[in-house]
Design a protein that fits this description.
48% helix; alpha+beta; three-stranded antiparallel beta sheet; 2 domains; elongated
């Protein structure tokens, strides 16, 4: 099981779904038989997918940054209040 987990974490952070190089046909089912995945974008109509663990890491970094900004704003407001 560890080998599978290691391989998943070494997978590309993003992959591209190639549906149709000429654009998506709205009359076809979502994933036509010719759909493929690739680590590189090939066509303008390709759809980017990002690994969930990468998204979660970015979400946590954003939450941490927002918390830091909140602390800095409260400190600035307190300093301004003390001067008045």
């Amino acid at each position: 099981m560890t080998d599978i987990v290691e391989r998943l974490h070494n997978a590309p952070a993003t992959i591209w779904l190639q549906v149709d190089p000429d654009g998506i046909d709205p009359t076809e089912e979502f994933l036509p038989d010719g759909a493929t995945w690739c680590k590189d974008k090939i066509n303008d109509s390709d759809v980017e997918y990002i690994r969930a663990d990468v998204v979660e890491s970015l979400r946590q970094q954003l939450a941490d940054a927002e918390a830091t900004v909140g602390v800095l704003l409260r400190a600035k407001n307190f300093a301004t209040w003390q001067r008045n």
